[in-house]
Amino acid sequence: MKNDEQVRMLVHSAFDKGLAHVEDRPSLRYEIMKKARGEQKVKRKFSVAMVCAMVVLMTTTAALAAGVHFGVFDFMTNLFGQEAVLPQAQEMVASDLAVMELENTTLKVEEAVYDGGNLRVMYSVASNNESQTIEEAAQADQVSLNGCDWFFINGEEIIMTNGSYFGNMLSPEGDRMLCYLDIYLASSNIVLQEDFKVSLPLIGAGKDAEYAAFTVPGYDVAENPVKTQTDSVNVMLLSSSISPVRSYVRLRIEKLPNVSAESYEAALYDWQDAYLVDKQGTKLCAPVEILMDGSVDGEWIEQTYVFLPVEADEVFFASTMITPQDEWIVDMNHALQIK
Amino acid sequence: MSVVKGPDKLREEKLHQMIDKYEKDLIRMCCAYLRDLSMAEDAVQETFLKAYKGLDSFKGNSSEKTWLIRIAINVCNDMRRNSWFRFIDQKIDVERLKIPEWEQNDVSISLMMEIMRLPRKYMEAILLYYYEDMKVAEIAEMLGISDTVISRRLKKAREMLKGMLEGVDLDEE
User: Fold this and answer.
1) Which of these three, B72, B93, B114, is where a domain ends?
2) How many CB atoms within 10 Å of residue A49?
3) Chain B window 44-103: which residues touch A at a Cβ cutoff of 8 Å?
4) In chain B, which residues have their Cβ closer than 8 Å to the Cβ of A269?
5) What mean pLDDT is predicted for residues A52-61?
6) A293 at the B interface (CB within 8 A)?
7) Both B55 and B118 in a single domain?
8) What is the CATH number of the domain that holds B147?
9) Given Cys at both, which of A93, A97, A141, A250 links A239, Cβ 3.0 to 4.6 Å?
10) In this complex, which of A18, A54, A289 lies closest to B84 when CB atoms are compared?
11) Is B163 exposed, middle or buried (0-12, 13-18, 19+ CB in 10 A)?
12) What residues contact B31, with CB distance under 8 A and at least 6 apart?
């Protein structure tokens, strides 16, 4: 094992070399000074509205070859590689959900899928006449190529949830714009076990918006609380779902009485460094994302773990622990069975 | 650093000095945090503007660099919490880091990428301790947590990087 000074040298070397091309930017200084003088209002470049307005250029997938179906999962594959979803995930996809013929455009909700955590929707916009580009036609009809920042689920209005995102790209055939919405419902504690109605305001704006409305199958989410207790915390599995698209584990961790803040925090780290494992404790998957669902008041925390899909008959959720030999291992003594 | 008060020109001069001294460092640090050079530049811009607005409130209890790093970390964390970041945060892309093609397979670059892939708290500990050369106590004070927690994070981060660190020969570096 390298000593502290050696590690320091390696880290310095790595970042100095890796970011050697990062130099002072005269234009950046100019921008800063201009804004500091109040000559230009600082843009909040990362507002939700702006997120939805961002056009994400997706490139290079096999499906780009003309004539190949490009679906909701192909957007995910762009992000996560070939292991994005299991083949059986296709059975969960609802297709050809809505068509809206407008003066200049045709809007179709082509596919949607809900996996117990996220609602993913792909809609397309095509120009109705050859003299107009898709963008021109969409602008004429006030059709959004940039998703939306609120929506309705079963008639209830919901502001775009935390952790959602949007992307679009021209179809492989070049005849329509494919738009993708990945709405993270679990981040707002929205769980839909039964079929549910979705309305997206994709035409017009504000009160005058018109909605693309369609129904999406629900997904069975297990909500049987399972508990375990370590030396410093109570851990409760609030809900879990394992689907061919993604797996989700929602957990509540509570500090035990008379436990020091440091021991509590150490336990939280152990539970943040958690995995889906099989019965023998072999790691199947690490979380691709951990989102804090609840508030932290120093005594408890609730968080959702998102995993890529796994294939196993029995699946456990397990934290890690450090052994007296300083090895980090999966802690099967406190593992929670989720399948 | 002395407390800056008074005419805007003096404040602007101070801002110039800070940009001269810390711009490159901060862009690199924000780049590691955000894994995206363009976003890092935005973060640094925001950091300097916040510092400029807060010059009067800076009491000199920490070094100027530590103060700016603290602001930059907060700005980066705000960006990371944002919906958009979640989209681009899924993988580390050499294109977004603008690393020249001929260097992408270099072992040092691989180590940097591996550090960036660590969960944020571990990456943060490695970056501040080993790259920004801050003391454990300074990092703890800056992040509002105990020295023990920082030491533990460093230990675990080193453990997570063990394979990569052992694979790099210092002589080659």
Assistant:
1) B93
2) 11
3) 44-46, 48-49, 52, 79, 82-87, 90-91, 97-100, 103
4) 121, 152-153, 156
5) 31
6) no
7) no
8) 1.10.10.10
9) A250
10) A54
11) exposed
12) A19, A22, B37, B40, B97
**pTM of the complete model:** 0.54
Whether B59 and B120 map to the same domain: the answer is: no
Distance from CA of A10 to the nearest CA of B (A): 7
pLDDT digits (tens, 9 = 90+) for A275-301: 999 999 999 988 877 776 555 556 888
Sequence ranges of the domains in chain A: 48-216, 226-337
pLDDT at B66 (0 to 100): 87
A226-337 and A48-216 share a CATH fold? yes
Rounded to two decimals, the ipTM of the complex is 0.81
Question: What is the full DSSP assignment across B22-70?
Answer: HHHHHHHHHHHHHS-HHHHHHHHHHHHHHHHHTGGG--SSS-HHHHHHH
Please name the amino acid found at residue A174.
G
- For the domain bounded by A226-337, which CATH number is listed? 2.60.40
Q: List all residues of chain A from 96 to 155 with a beta carbon under 8 Å from chain B.
A: none
Q: Do A25 and B170 touch (CB under 8 A)?
A: no
